[in-house]
From TrEMBL:
InterPro entries: GH131_N. The keyword Signal applies. It comes from Thermothelomyces thermophilus (strain ATCC 42464 / BCRC 31852 / DSM 1799) (Sporotrichum thermophile). Residues 1-19 form the signal peptide. Residues 38-289 form the Glycoside hydrolase 131 catalytic N-terminal domain. This is Glycoside hydrolase 131 catalytic N-terminal domain-containing protein. Pfam families: GH131_N. Gene3D superfamilies: 2.60.120.1160. The keyword Hydrolase does not apply. Keywords: Signal.
Amino acid sequence: MHSTTTLLSLLSAAAAANGASLPRDSVCGAAAEIQCPIVFDGRVSADAQPTDFDSASTSIFNPDYVKGNNLKWSDILQFPDAGTTHFDNETHKPFEVTLSDESIFQSQQGFRRAGLQFNGDTNNGSPGSQGVKTIHFSVKIDPQRGLNLSHEYILVWHEAADYSANQFNFETGTIIGQEGLPKDTYKVLNRNNQQIWSTPILEDQWQNFAITLDFNQNTLQVYYSEADEPLESVTDVVSNNNAGEGQYQIGLLKKPTGTDDVVNSGYQESGIDEGLIYGSLFVEDSANGCVSL
Ligand SMILES: *[C@@H]1O[C@H](CO)[C@@H](O)[C@H](O)[C@H]1NC(C)=O
Ligand SMILES: *[C@@H]1O[C@H](CO)[C@@H](O)[C@H](O)[C@H]1NC(C)=O
């Protein structure tokens, strides 16, 4: 796959001579290692078939939620050749969550949405809503299925059990009511929908994110890197109201324009074929400050 054997031998020899260990990110294609106990693993197996995601016996996600009423996950998920990302290795593959005109969940005519939930992430009593947890995800745009950044898209979030709020939102596009923020960035918003960090969307690079949620201290912290670089913290530990339990959701929720009632009304253009590629998805236990970088 990579013609780096000679370089690697040289680096290994140099590292051995120094008594230093070979830096992981100098090894082309090597996955970063997860350091902490995995609570939910959303990394898709390289041999997974689309229809695996339609059945509870074969899917690592909830096969029934949150998607267009007449769609199956095998209609929604694509598996583009997007390379290996940060915590994935050759036993995993990235997946793309897509939106079409059919992406209408229940009677929510305002939204177009397709959101994955981890198996075992129950709305109440989930281990993902207790203690200190870090959700990891990497994203890459698909030029064939571009997003319309005149709209607001939520891409990863944690929704309270009573559906009254999201403890955090990872978003892109034009945030309704905050049109002054640049649209072509990824943004982390706190529970009050205030942006706490953002970074430009890259066209052809994996971008890696982690968000640590402390459900005891009511804080969050954001980590970021590009390509196969180690994650670095990009915010302080900031206070955030993480109460209310609920569930993670990974996928696209596209809001309409031109309405105050985003759930039920507003404008969505027809004929859409949009998507975002995800990989390196998991939740780990960050008790005692453990965060995989
Ligand atoms: C790839 O990741 C899996 C965990 O999902 C791990 O069991 C396996 O050892 C890894 N393979 C390599 C070659 O690192
Ligand atoms: C993008 O969204 C805006 C607002 O809904 C709409 O006016 C425009 O036609 C859309 N652009 C494309 C290319 O679909």
